[in-house]
Amino acid sequence: MITVGQQLPNATIHEFLEVATEGCSVGPNAFEVSKLTAGKKIVIFGLPGAFTPTCSAQHVPGYVAQYDAIKAKGVDEIWCLSVNDAFVMGAWGKDQKVNGKVRMMADGSGELTKKLGLELDLTARGLGVRSQRYLMIVDNGVVKHLAVEGPGKFEVSDAASALKAL
User: Start and end of every Thioredoxin domain (predicted)?
Assistant: First the structure.
């Protein structure tokens, strides 16, 4: 598992964009983690899946509600990272009304999640390999804080925990 002080491994993740910008088309766009994190302070919260109970009722809404407070701590971006495809993450972001506050990043094949050592095998429950629930604070691609939830827990990866860690 990745630890504090280590550089994030490079991987390709995807984000569904509803508005085209220079270099980014409408729809799923691929991004290299190393390029996205360069020179930025980012709060990343990983979770098992889009539209799941705890993730939808508490995890994402907490970060949307605490957006201003987190940004006031010098954070450039907040990412929600899940082993789902970009279409699902885009739809979930719309449903959660993230409105650009939280980037809904798709790790569809689990490439980044596996390189981080944060995968969670839920195949016995019909969900395949997913991500553990965690909070990571990254500065210029280097992990500054990492808190991984215990099985079935939601105590150290919420927005309040991010504010304390910042």
Answer: 2-166
